[in-house]
Structure of SpoVT-AbrB domain-containing protein:
Amino acid sequence: MKTTARKIGNSIGTILPKELNPKVGTEYDVYKVEDTIIMVPSKSKLFDNPEEWKDFRKSITKEDRDWDEMED
């Protein structure tokens, strides 16, 4: 598969082939390693939304605590 870098306004972009199944609106983290460009779909940070963790401590059972404190 090949694609070509093109000028888009003041930036440079490329079109992703439909065979890659990109979803419109997906946000990517982009990395450059030597001469290779890597695009990875962005994932939300684990602790970004405190609301998701609000009752987490209440959900931990005694069995969870015992397992966590087990000796090797």
About this structure: The chain has one domain: 6-68.
